[in-house]
Amino acid sequence: MPDFWDLHYAQRVQLMKSSAIRDLLKLTEQPEVISFAGGLPAAEIFPVEKVASATQKVLQERGVQALQYGPSEGYRPLLELIAQTSSRDGLTITPENIFIVSGSQQGLDFVGRLLVNPGDLVLVESPTYMGALQAMAPYGADYITVPSDENGLRTDALEEMLALKPKLMYVLPNFQNPSGVTLSLERRKRLVELANRYGVPVVEDDPYSQLRFEGEPLPSLLTLDSQLRKSEGEPYRGNIIQLNTFSKVLTPGLRVAWIVASPELVRKLVQTKQGADLHTASLNQLIVHELLREGFIEQHIPLIRRTYGERRNIMLQAMEEHFPAGIRWTRPQGGMFLWVVLPEGLNSTELLREAVKENVAFVPGTPFHAQGGGENTLRLSFSNATPEQIREGIARLGRVFHKALAETAVKA
Ligand SMILES: Cc1ncc(COP(=O)(O)O)c(C=O)c1O
């Protein structure tokens, strides 16, 4: 029987999906479970004392400002500092190009609010970040997908999808969540060129590029687009909307992130923000500004890179040792995740139930697939578990996979 609220929800609430997997993942929150499921940064390297001293300094020196309402676009000195460090390689970013949001997740919601009408096609990679799918679904986004491989989304399959005239395209070029793969330079150039030709806005979600522990950095889509437009010296005015965040390079608890986009779009975002939460917490923006200004974030990033690089190595080595033949996985050069492909016929959601009995957890791959599929895939996060937990957790997972394969062999 429908309850009181079922009779009162707006139509869009039907478009909000609560995933069955989320309920299953609740089981993984028990302390005895070694979880590779959540996308959590390593908590033991959070710079707690540094944040405490910056907070104290901010309150002493700019206390009233830190505790007062602030402008919707963000704290001006923070906008200026970000603009200054973003302007390079043919890209000119002014404070008018920048907009502070309460986490890049809010940026995804705002993009949906500003650009998506019910029934609009939104082009995403397969697999893609499920939080983006959740953010834009209530606005009526109809997702279409482009496949990806070890070099990121397949630009050879892109043109026919762009010909369907999607309203926007959502991409993660660096150490993609969930797959960990990085879009190659050649494909980046092709993507930017095609998006320009078809006049499609591109949301470049980039929380992980600074967490590269191997290989050379690649130019962002924003930079390549600016080079293509030869717009150096002019504030960026192209079709790329870039989402960035302090969540992975400092701490997610502060909820400070920023969008780089054309000043025209930023002005619309300001109106959206006024209706949502007025502005991102002033105190948090001032803390981030202080830590950025004094160079702390820059100094802290190498520790995060080192920690995640080590953990990825340990995870890869343990997988080599414990996983049965026939299972494939990615080898990310940065970020927090890797992606596992089980032999056809194995179902990772069913295997999660078995894994939880062994006190180990991962995220099954299906919710990352906007158009279904991926039953035999799963995501492992290597950022949050300690090296000992990684070794032990992968050994347990190896046992679960061996058992499942032995059972399917018996059935066959
Ligand atoms: C691809 C991607 N986009 C956005 C977010 C949200 O980040 P934030 O903490 O900035 O809201 C995440 C968080 O895991 C993510 O992986």
Automatic annotation (TrEMBL):
GO biological process, one term: alpha-amino acid metabolic process
InterPro entries reported for this sequence: Aminotransferase_I/II_large, Class-I_PLP-dep_aminotransf, PyrdxlP-dep_Trfase, PyrdxlP-dep_Trfase_major, PyrdxlP-dep_Trfase_small
A Gene Ontology molecular function term of the record: pyridoxal phosphate binding
Xref: CDD domains: AAT_like (cd00609)
Cofactor names: pyridoxal 5'-phosphate
Domain annotation Aminotransferase class I/classII large: ranges: 45-397
Signal peptide: none
Transferase is among the record's keywords: yes
Alphabetically ordered keywords of this record: Aminotransferase, Pyridoxal phosphate, Transferase
Family: Belongs to the class-I pyridoxal-phosphate-dependent aminotransferase family.
Subunit comment: Homodimer.
Protein name: Putative transcriptional regulator, GntR family
Species annotation: Ktedonobacter racemifer DSM 44963
